[in-house]
Structure formats: structure tokens, C-alpha cells
Amino acid sequence: MGSNYRWLEKDMLTPKQLKLFKYLKNYFKEHEYMPIFEEMKVYMNIKSKSGVYNMLGAIEWKGYIKRYPARNRAIKIIKEVA
Asked: What is the pTM of this model?
């Protein structure tokens, strides 16, 4: 992580991670399934899918979501933001 985030604890989301996490929650609430990478990329205004992939990895590492490999839209919210 960058030097701007030294004060964060391991399980705290950065502002961008929090924005994506809230998007996932709201999208699932509206559609009853998760968005695809392309939709997340457009929403977050990120140029590559790898940026979304890395952000999801960080959110998963912090314990907020669970991803299931090789399955489309396979993300489960497992922890709420305090």
C-alpha cells in the first residue's frame, strides 16, 4: 500500500475499495446477482480488468468478500463495513 494508507489497519478498506464494495452490495440488492468485471471496470473508471481484479483481491484479503475461482459473477459478501 502507498504511504498515504499507513494509518489503516489490515481490515480497513481504502476509499476506492469501499466504493467498489458498496457497488457490489447495491448491485446485488437490485439484481440478485453480482456484476461482471466489465461493469465494475466502467463503474470504477478503471482502464483494465486487472485493476478490478487486484482491488477485489484486496477486498477479499481483508475479509469482506469471498470469490469462487472459474465461476462467472461468483462473489459473496461475507462481512459488512462498520
From this structure: 0.83
